[in-house]
Amino acid sequence: MDESRKALYRARAKVLKALAHPTRLWMVEKLAQGEHCVCELLETVDADFSTVSKHLSVLRQAGIVDVQKRGKQMFYRLKVPCVLEFMGCIEAVLAAGAQDRPDAPGMTTPGTACRQCRQREKEL
Question: What percentage of the chain reaches a pLDDT higher than 90?
Answer without folding.
Answer: 57
